[in-house]
Amino acid sequence: MKRVAALVAGLSLCAFAASAQPKPEPPPTPQEFAKGEELFGSICSHCHGPHMVNPGNASFDLRKFPHDDRARFFNDVMNGKKSMPPWKDVLHPDEIEAIWAYVRTGGKAPQ
Ligand code: HEC
User: Fold this and answer.
1) CA 59 to ligand 1 centroid distance, Å
2) CB of residue 33 inside a 6 A radius of ligand 1
3) Residue 97 CB–ligand 1 contact under 6 Å
4) How far apart are CA 104 and CA 91, in angstroms?
5) Whole-angstrom Cα distance, residue 31 to residue 39?
6) What is the mean pLDDT of residues 78-84?
7) Nearest protein Cα to ligand 1, atom 39
């Protein structure tokens, strides 16, 4: 019986570790942000709207994208999602990083 209790305790510890959030990312540099803003304006805004303001189509409103979910952003952007094409053959990882800098700050330039 004791063993079972230890196992259960161990399992819930694992679940806790897996759900723990990584440390927040440091703010992007102004250069990185500016590059992301420019790329967003030339590539993503066709569907996601200028300054991330959703133009009322089926695309996701990127102002609502969670600012701490880097993994989800990279996965969606690299591989595409439903009617959004994949970008991994179009954009360099540095460029996706810069766009992430723009999105995760909610479009507010770092000081
Ligand atoms: C051809 C139109 C189009 C373009 C261009 C486009 N997207 Fe999308 N994007 C969409 C659509 C439509 C969805 C919603 C997919 C769905 O139904 O879940 C989406 C979803 C997303 C999501 C997923 C949000 C989630 O639910 O996790 C992210 C992130 C995203 N786009 C980022 C970008 C970025 C960054 C760019 C520029 C490199 C870009 N998109 C360019 C159409 C587009």
Assistant:
1) 6
2) no
3) no
4) 18
5) 12
6) 96
7) 44
Of 111, 83, 106, whose CA–CA distance to 36 is shortest? Answer: 106
Sign of CA dihedral 50, 55, 59, 61: positive
pLDDT tens track for 6-65: 555 555 554 555 556 667 889 999 999 999 999 999 999 999 999 999 988 888 999 999
Per-residue pLDDT band for 105 (boundaries 50, 70, 90) equals very high
- Give 81 Cα–ligand 1 centroid separation in angstroms: 7
Residues 6+ apart with CB under 8 A from 88: 77, 78, 79
Q: 19 CA distance to ligand 1 centroid (A)? A: 26
Cα 21 from Cα 70, distance rounded (Å):
11
